[in-house]
Amino acid sequence: MLTDFYGNHLTTSTGLARDSYDIGLRAFLSANYGAQEAFSQAIEADPNFALAYLGLARAFMSSGQIVEAKAVLGKAKNLLAEVTDREKSHFVCCELILSGEAQKARLAVYNHVSEWPCDAMIAQMCTSVFGLIGFSGEVGRENALLDYTAKLLPHYGEDWWMMSMHAISLCETGQTLKSMQLMEKALNLNPRNANAAHFFAHILYEENEVSAGRDYLAAWMPSYDRRSLLHGHLSWHQALWALHDGDETSMWEVIDSSVSQEKGSSLPINALTDTASIYYRAELAGYNVSTDRWLKLSEYATQKFPHMGQSFADIHAALAHAMAGNEEYLSKLIDGNSGFAGDIVPAVAKTWKAISEDKWDKARRELETISSEFVRFGGSRAQRDLLEFTYVNVLLRTDNKENAQKTLLERRPVFFEKAPIQAISGP
């Protein structure tokens, strides 16, 4: 029996199928374009290769092609009688995710990796800030993610993927020096690992190294296929640093070419959240964002996220709807309670509505009720700075400058001296 490059047995006797599967797995783990093609080639080489179908299903899932993923998963199901217990468990984990049973899926992943820790395709489901732990809606998710990768790391040796996943966990728990050391090692092993490049950018962000961050991505991005999963989001990082640097021209150039829902190649959740975030952070920094931009983004949100349920997306959709004056969809988010952090989404939606109406005292009262729970929305610290900076700005707008400065110093001290918020410093 053949094995993948992590040493896991594969139910195929075809070398070409195995090789194509490995190519797909590497592309998937490094967030590079080509995973779907490689897994499809593995299937062509061996039409009975169940794990290749599961890999293709995961690749479809990562690109938001849920209908296609379910169809391929159904084909894999018909081949399970002749596969190993690991591959059967692999199917269960995939099926639970596609069924929307996140908590059951997370437990299934935990059980799976306890038996087969080097099954990276399954281990990946709970890694990074967008995985089953990251979007759990639980307080303490960052430490839970660190614990998860720390337990897996010894099983992988000198592996570029797991090093980068653990480095992400270190970064999100404030251990930026350790994270940088490990991420640099991961990038030396695989310089084209976009996940590592992504969180190397996060490390620089957490250190407020604006020039270094801009230079790094300016050098790394040109050879990254814009069809790849993280191209739009890494472009968001470039736009964010341009904003922090006061380079409005470059900021808009990157937004309009690679970030926005109209021009970017991101998943809908990234296109929505990245665009809404950079728009409002630009407003906080004193730049004008046209009503037309907000209207188009609100329309996109209604198309891609018509129903409440993905809390991280919901708070950004609420922002777009509020700024565009889309009362119909905003009210659904204000009145709803669905998703992993659905109980606190309404407060954020009410905040955006109050801000759009210049009711700053009301906005402050709403944010004060949940300001200690921002972490539950998921995403990275950098992404949640949208809420942190909004809260600080609301405090400033309500003549609470001392409290605003105290809040920023306590929550995001790295930005205290130069925060991208108007009037945060000075007498």
Question: What's this model, at a glance?
Answer:
Among the domains are: 2-126, Serine Threonine Protein Phosphatase 5, Tetratricopeptide repeat (Alpha Horseshoe); 267-427, Serine Threonine Protein Phosphatase 5, Tetratricopeptide repeat, CATH 1.25.40. It is 65% helix and 1% strand.
Give a description of the structure:
The longest helix is centred in the middle third of the chain and has 17 residues, at 268-284. A two-stranded antiparallel sheet has the order 1-2. It is built from 22 helices and 2 strands. The chain is globular. The termini are far apart. The model has no long low-confidence stretch (mean pLDDT 95). By secondary structure, it is an all-alpha fold. Among the domains are: 2-126, Alpha Horseshoe (Serine Threonine Protein Phosphatase 5, Tetratricopeptide repeat), CATH 1.25.40; 267-427, Serine Threonine Protein Phosphatase 5, Tetratricopeptide repeat.
